[in-house]
């Protein structure tokens, strides 16, 4: 009986990691293994890795790792962008190799072979738009436009000069120390995008996050339907039901025999 255990394992692990990463800090998961996995994924794994490097190779190697981290996260560079592309490409390759042979299946049509390419491509397009679009760079030429667009309220936002750019910093703007520029309606600098997230590309960034959430959800559902279809085609449920039914009858029969001996 050829049960697709690879798909079962892949789907289970993926669901556990996604739920733990996104929801592990919810009060409902407090004190559970889901919270522990979230802590491990977000901070614990990296700290253990640093301790392992220091124990195995010394303080110099640990400092080297921290230097690489600083270079990747605190300076403009495409390393995390390349890493993202590798993750998406590698995951899609694994999905194709492990699951496409089961498509079409009982619950999954051949359409999903091509639909998967479309949804991954849309995610890639949103990634490119977020990474390479102008987040809303403020210069001496356009600063007056941004000041009029985002007036100061003299409560939270007061008129200040950017000490680096030497121009008036509009309300809700901030100077990014990584990109070395003032950005309108600055949100944060995203290392994965190698770009700031600001006025002009926030919509692309939010669309990127939402689309990748839907992409993960779509993949998990389709993998579940593939597994369910394979179990149905191979009559695994009926076999297990029959097996436990026979075993249950055998157990009851044995119990009756034992009881009759005492009578």
From TrEMBL:
Main location: membrane
Superkingdom as given in the UniProt entry: Eukaryota
A Pfam family recorded for this sequence: DHHC
Transmembrane segments: 82-102, 114-132, 204-228
Locations listed in the record: Membrane
Keyword tRNA-binding: no
Top EC group: transferase
UniProt keyword RNA-binding, yes or no: no
Topology of the protein relative to the lipid bilayer: Multi-pass membrane protein
Domain Palmitoyltransferase DHHC per the UniProt entry, residue ranges: 159-235
Catalytic activity: L-cysteinyl-[protein] + hexadecanoyl-CoA = S-hexadecanoyl-L-cysteinyl-[protein] + CoA
EC numbers: 2.3.1.225
Domain notes: The DHHC domain is required for palmitoyltransferase activity.
Family the UniProt entry places it in: Belongs to the DHHC palmitoyltransferase family.
Protein name listed in UniProt: S-acyltransferase
Organism name: Triticum urartu
């Amino acid at each position: 009986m050829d049960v697709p255990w690879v798909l079962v394992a892949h789907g289970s692990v993926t669901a556990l990691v996604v739920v733990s990463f996104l929801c592990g800090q919810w009060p409902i998961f407090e004190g559970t293994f889901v919270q522990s996995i979230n802590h491990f994924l977000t901070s614990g794994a990296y700290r253990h890795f640093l301790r392992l490097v220091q124990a195995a190779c010394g303080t110099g190697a640990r400092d080297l790792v921290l230097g690489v981290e600083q270079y990747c996260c605190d300076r403009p560079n495409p390393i995390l962008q390349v890493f993202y592309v590798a993750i998406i490409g590698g995951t899609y390759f694994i999905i194709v190799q492990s699951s496409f042979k089961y498509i079409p299946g009982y619950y999954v049509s051949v359409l999903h072979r091509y639909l998967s390419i479309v949804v991954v491509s849309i995610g890639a397009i949103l990634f490119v738009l977020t990474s390479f679009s102008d987040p809303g760079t403020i210069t001496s030429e356009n600063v007056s436009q941004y000041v009029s667009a985002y007036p100061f309220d003299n409560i939270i936002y007061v008129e200040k000069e950017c000490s680096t750019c030497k121009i008036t910093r509009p309300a809700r703007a901030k100077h990014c120390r990584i990109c070395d520029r003032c950005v309108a309606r600055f949100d944060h600098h995203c290392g994965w995008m190698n770009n700031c997230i600001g006025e002009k590309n926030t919509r692309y960034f939010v669309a990127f996050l939402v689309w990748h959430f839907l992409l993960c959800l779509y993949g998990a559902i389709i993998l579940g339907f593939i597994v369910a279809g394979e179990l149905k085609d191979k009559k695994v449920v009926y076999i297990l039901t029959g097996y436990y039914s026979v075993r249950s009858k055998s157990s009851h029969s044995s119990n009756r025999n034992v009881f009759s001996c005492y009578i």
